[in-house]
Amino acid sequence: MPNVSPAVSGGRRTGTTPRRRSPRRWPWRTRTTPCALPTRSPLWLTSAEPWQASPAYGVGIYGGGMRLLTYQRSVAGPRAGVEAAQWWGRMARDPLGTYGALARRYGDAVQVPFGMRRSFFLLSRPEHAEHVLVANQANYVKAFTYRPLRVFLGDGLLTSEGETWRRHRRLVQPVFAQRHIVAYAPQMVESTRGAVERWPDGVLLDAAEQLRRLTLDVVGRALFGSELAGEAARTGRSLEALQRAAKIGTFLPRVAARRGLYTRMPWLKDGIAHLDGMVETVVKGSGGELLDLLKESGGLSEDELRDEVLTLLLAGHETTAASMAWTFVLLSRYPAARERLEGEVDEVLGGRDPQADDVDRLPWTRAVLSEAMRLYPPAWTIERDAVEDDDVAGVRIPAGSTLAVPPYLLHRNAEFWPNPEGFQPERFMGESERPRYAYLPFGGGKRICVGAGFAMLEATLMLATISRTHRLDLAPGMTVPGRAEVTYRPAGPVPMRVSRR
Ligand code: HEM
Questions:
Q1: What ipTM was estimated for this complex?
Q2: Which pLDDT tens digit goes with each residue over 135-164?
Q3: What's the distance, CA 205 to chain centroid?
Q4: Is 441 in the pocket of ligand 1 (CB under 6 A)?
């Protein structure tokens, strides 16, 4: 983030002119050349090729000296200098809230200057997402915001690029093919049934913790043949630390090694040591199908194998746990949707636990999950850096810019989602006229979530298995705030009363 410090200039009172408070001005702002077109005017937004018409200028203090910075402004947004710096300050504290505020103030495409002549673009229309993630995906790499995560996940699928990413993806993808993942269904149901039977009737439990434990158990057993449920509480805390570090690290310069992060965030060390230990245990274990495949491929070095195992363990349980927690919170708030869900589960399953081929016969159950992921997408933002200049559905993007296409904003764009804040699973029943990229909980293009099919199967089976016998009710008077870091999840414990149906 640029180091911009405000200064104040005031005029001395002369003669007998009545005392008037002179407006305080930022000195560089008085010298700023305004855009030829006002950035917030509708004219500006409808101009045929606005970026050709006028660059925007900003002056700020960078690297100790005052410099004039030019930004090719193609869409509305805060001005370079203090105004942009204030937004960056907000973003560091509350990224999701600030993205929402920027979109409300400036519209579906927002440009926020940062650093030396670079810009961040916040794009929240389906055609933006389609262009960046699919149509011209070759022009985009994972954004610099993934840099702190990369320090820990290294060459794992989530954070690698280029030939390394292609090699890993070719290895891992076959394990997640539809015909393969149905074989994990019995394990998913067995783990869920085991967990649910241990829940004492009528007692308040932390649902977030219980569901994290369950998803870690499923991923550990199904993919790696390891029992990890007992590690869930510590893993949860380690992940909290990792996510916080990833958020803070985005705003630190030169974060390229663990040591650099530990110096600034010593509290991180314990958590990372725990995750490393867990990966070590998994790698040394006898393995599930995925681990065997990764080991036997001969295509991965030892370090790459560890990076991949850690990536799949983390990406594969935290996201599903968050979406399950949000789903139960919503069901507790919307009893009619819950009754319909229980009715469907009772009718289709007739008193037994579900199997993989029941999933197609549980449309309302799947719609409930899809709607929960619309309102609370665990991967709430997707970010890329542009390699070359581009034109994203009318927004001119200079090379080196960073772009965010946040599912959180796309999923709440009122143009495509009437009553965007309402929980209405019926939106997902039957065909829809919506553009394909108005909904992208699993991303899109070549970097689409490799575990999407696994996650949907797991979540549907879990929800049906739990709802067949149990109900979860949010403790009276509880509100559940979210925390958006790498994932968007409940900010703390989610106390819910478990009762047998
Ligand atoms: C509800 C659950 C899940 C959600 C919402 C989710 C969401 C996402 C999204 C949006 C991406 C794309 C990120 C980007 O383009 O920058 C992604 C990537 C990925 N996800 Fe998931 N995910 C879920 C579950 C899983 C599961 C169960 C696994 C594995 C067991 C998994 C493994 C991965 C991996 C390895 C990547 C990186 C893929 C690549 O870049 O090639 N995810 N996920």
A1: 0.99
A2: 999 999 998 878 777 878 888 999 999 999
A3: 26
A4: yes
